[in-house]
């Protein structure tokens, strides 16, 4: 198992408030690593990357279509995108090289998912990743 995959499993899934997680390489627009059983289609990757390429206000207004669901965007800025659909959500944090993606499901605390994802994103930015 790679160092990056261990980071995802330990720091995100280890909280028990992240259902699945992945790292997307920004330049290549491709999946780098993901938690077991979590797959992202090229169209999902493209939508996430484009969510940051657009004006954050536009992304916030339009929402996010991810994994065949429409999500209401509750935060969109230079480094973070948060979106929810009923009791599920997706948190996306941008670093220099990656998009860090984490999802939560019903029964999980979104705030814990956000905090863990943002902290890992900050760690990766400090490492230059």
TrEMBL record:
Superkingdom of the organism of origin: Eukaryota
GO cellular component annotations of the record: cytoplasm
GO terms (BP aspect): cell differentiation; spermatogenesis
Pfam families listed in its UniProt record: Profilin
Xref: InterPro entries: PFN (IPR048278), PFN_euk (IPR005455), PFN_sf (IPR036140)
Keywords: Actin-binding, Cytoplasm, Developmental protein, Differentiation, Lipid-binding, Spermatogenesis
Family the entry assigns: Belongs to the profilin family.
Descriptive protein name: Profilin
Organism: Daubentonia madagascariensis (Aye-aye)
